[in-house]
UniProtKB/TrEMBL annotation:
The lineage of its organism: Bacteria, Bacillati, Actinomycetota, Actinomycetes, Mycobacteriales. One of its GO terms (cellular component) is plasma membrane. This is APC family permease. PANTHER family: AMINO ACID PERMEASE, AMINO ACID TRANSPORTER-RELATED. The chain crosses the membrane at residues 21-42, 62-81, 107-130, 142-163, 170-189, 209-226, 246-265, 304-326, 347-371, 391-411, 423-444, 456-473. It is a multi-pass membrane protein. GO terms for molecular function: transmembrane transporter activity. It comes from Corynebacterium mendelii. Keywords: Cell membrane, Membrane, Transmembrane, Transmembrane helix. InterPro entries: AA/rel_permease1, APC_superfamily. It comes from the Bacteria. The keyword Cell membrane applies. It holds the Pfam family AA_permease_2.
């Protein structure tokens, strides 16, 4: 086995004080952090109505189950790898171990750009929703970008805190989301519009529908961040057990909860009417339903929790980015100061501050662009959120495909891992993820709100993939010019580790 395959992140000899990630996350806390990225209320209130409106098909609930199965197949090989490759580099480290160091660095570059696109794009919708909520509920008029900067500041503060403390905050926010969605489910199923139709789970109808690809492309956003358990490897109590349990648990909860909740909304509004109402109401659908059924206070609470749902997702993606930067800084691929952790909180302070700085510049940049061009009111949602998050999702699905391939290569010839875990499951995941990747590409114009052909349809996916090419080139340059740094790619450790363990 290689050096990085047998390292134990809990081994005190691996810590030099400047680069330590320290935490005591258990399975439950880790599941909350994973689910926070998928934003349950955001999916049910925003993602599902969008999917109903675009696909005009009843089988949207089934789409979440199908995607859940694909991701569970992915998780089998992924979880097996988590017991062998243990550092906060996650997907990056797995690819370096399975496909090679240059390919690993290509994935690292691609991951940084994709996760940053997802995280920064969320500030657009966060600022917009907070601004219109303050106006509607309190009569306070505030610019979207000031609201976005409020979320940015809170994210920056939490990002500098110890993960155990911030996990508790995120846990409360996620529980609030489950409460609101659970209330919607209860009221919808208590007063069905037309009985309990099961068209949402009609497999033959789903498979034959022309909108099946679009439904899966839109639905994939509901699972973004499920792979993030491995970035907390060094901050968990028992990573070899906790990481697989948290990954399986989170994916299962997400798939079942979303499928059931979206079906419940379908039952409450009506299987046919829900499509028309989704087209008409958009993200207001769930809150409109609560108000229409005599629960206006709950509807207002839901709007507030919708904002905290977006904030929880912002923080979850911020964490992922900060830990990727930390790992690359440790290894010397990025400047060394980016690999430092706070001596007080042991948070990845270098990576966290860097991500916060980039997000700040982007928020101000989009605000300035909107002001100069006289952009419409919906600009932060249509452009900042729509363009960036869909570009990021495109990149992340590709990353998952490459990771599944890495699992196959990593375990080849390893008889200690059963055939299903090392070959069958990852290959099935690759087939499913490959189909979703192609569908996202085909429907990219719809995802970013473009009408007909647009340079965005070609340009944004190309930019995302080109970052991986640049990472590959950088890896080759390091191999030829800085072999010591090249050797550390994917290990999660830097020169201090080399000095202690040579």
């Amino acid at each position: 086995m290689t050096q990085q395959q047998i390292l134990d992140p809990q081994d005190p000899s691996l810590h030099d004080g400047k680069h330590d990630l320290v935490g005591h996350l258990g399975t439950g806390s880790l599941i909350f952090l994973i689910i926070a990225a998928s934003a349950p209320l955001t999916v049910v209130a925003g993602g599902a109505p969008t999917s109903f409106a675009v696909t005009e098909m009843a089988g949207v609930p089934l789409g979440y189950l199908v995607l859940g199965i694909v991701i569970l197949f992915f998780s089998v090989g992924y979880a097996a790898m988590s017991s062998r490759v243990t550092n906060a580099g996650a997907i990056y480290a797995y690819t370096a171990a399975g496909l090679g160091k240059r390919q690993g660095l290509a994935v690292a570059w691609l991951a940084l750009v994709s996760y940053n696109a997802m995280q920064i794009g969320l500030y657009g919708i966060f600022g917009f929703v907070l601004a219109i909520t303050l106006d509607a509920m309190a009569g306070i008029t505030v610019s979207w970008w000031l609201c976005a900067l409020t979320g940015w500041l809170l994210t920056a503060i939490l990002g500098a805190m110890n993960i155990d403390a911030s996990a508790k905050v995120i846990g409360v926010l996620v529980l609030l989301e489950f409460f609101i969605v659970g209330a919607v489910d209860f009221f919808a199923l208590s007063t069905p519009a037309d009985g309990y139709p099961m068209g949402g789970f009609d497999v033959p109808e789903f498979v034959s529908s022309p909108g099946v690809g679009a439904a899966l492309a839109f639905g994939m956003a509901a699972f973004m961040g499920f792979e993030s358990a491995t970035i907390y490897t060094e901050e968990t109590k028992n990573p070899r057990k906790t990481i697989p349990r948290a990954t399986y648990g989170a994916v299962t909860i997400i798939a079942l909860f979303y499928a059931f909740s979206v079906w419940a909304v379908q039952v409450g509004i009506g299987e046919t009417l829900v499509i028309d109402k989704s087209i008409e109401m958009g993200p207001e659908l769930v809150f409109w339903y609560l108000a229409e059924t005599g629960h206006p206070v709950l509807a207002d609470l839901g709007r507030v929790v919708f904002i905290t749902s977006l904030f929880a997702a912002l923080f979850a993606f911020h964490n992922a980015i900060a830990r990727y930067i930390l790992t690359l800084g440790r290894e010397g691929v990025l400047p060394e100061f980016l690999g430092r952790t706070s001596p007080k909180t042991h948070a990845p302070i270098g990576g966290s501050l860097t991500q916060s700085a980039l997000a700040f510049v982007c928020i101000i940049g989009f605000a300035a662009y909107g002001a100069v061009t006289g952009a419409p009111f919906e600009f932060p949602v249509i452009v900042m959120f729509g363009w960036l998050t869909n570009a990021g999702a495109f990149g992340i699905v590709f990353l998952l495909f490459i990771t599944a391939l890495s699992c196959v290569f990593f375990f080849r010839g390893d008889a200690s891992i059963n055939l299903f875990s090392r070959v069958i499951s990852p290959v099935l995941a690759m087939i499913g993820l490959g189909f979703v990747f192609i569908e996202i590409l085909i429907h990219f114009d719809v995802l970013v709100g473009a009408e007909g052909f647009s340079p965005l349809v070609i340009g944004m996916p190309t930019v995302i993939l080109l970052t991986g090419v640049l990472g590959l080139i950088r890896g080759e340059w390091l191999r030829r010019n800085r072999p010591a740094v090249f050797d550390r790619i994917g290990t999660g450790h830097g020169v201090e580790f080399d000095n202690q363990h040579t």
